[in-house]
Specification:
Blueprint: E1 19-21, E2 24-26, H1 31-41, H2 56-66
Antiparallel strand pairs: 1-2
């Protein structure tokens, strides 16, 4: 987990500055942005836990119990 902070690992992050339209901030995405992101996020599930931070083993057991009909996902 400590390696995930290294700049050589992971995806690069580009900044798209927002513009004002009808008094609202708007960020324009290109078709290429959406297509590339779609491939990356297509099989991703993001969960949010309220309260105390759970232990990794607790999350692992929870996923094994409720998602036992699919291949075990990677939990980060």
């Amino acid at each position: 987990m400590k390696q995930n902070r290294e700049s050589q690992i992971g995806r690069s992050l580009d900044y798209s500055p927002p513009t004002m339209r009808d008094g609202k901030l708007v960020v324009k995405l290109t078709k290429e942005d959406i297509h590339e992101s779609g491939e990356h996020w297509a099989m991703l599930l993001i969960g949010y836990v309220l309260g105390d931070t759970p232990f990794e083993r607790s999350m692992d057991n929870y996923v094994k119990t409720l998602w036992n009909f699919v291949q075990k996902p990677q939990i980060l």
